User: What shape does this take?
Amino acid sequence: MSGFKAFLLKTNALALAVGVIIGVAMGNVVNSLVNDLIMPPIGMALGNLDFSQMKIVLKATGDPKTEVAIRYGNFINIVIAFVIVALVVYVVTSLLLRAAPEDPKPPTKTCPFCKEAVPADATRCRACTSAI
Assistant: This one.
């Protein structure tokens, strides 16, 4: 058990687990957003169309639970949810992973022997080891 605990603390496994849990929760929120808030107005604008009920019935049995059908409306809802999740992930990562501002380069001078740039306060060239 101590080896497993060390594995979790030394690697990014714990961070990955937290990320997966948050991702699943975010997926549920986005699914609700798509199914409950976005698709009803779109369906209403298209003439009271319910995307989740759009399907091509291949074998009708009289019972919706046992019929064989291609449910492309549900697929449309899932694609829209995926696009929203991808957009949210892009925005969050672009905000969190901004490039750190670069430090200004320290002043340098050129070695008179090998023409390599060395720090201005250096007394020896790191390339040719000449005294400068």
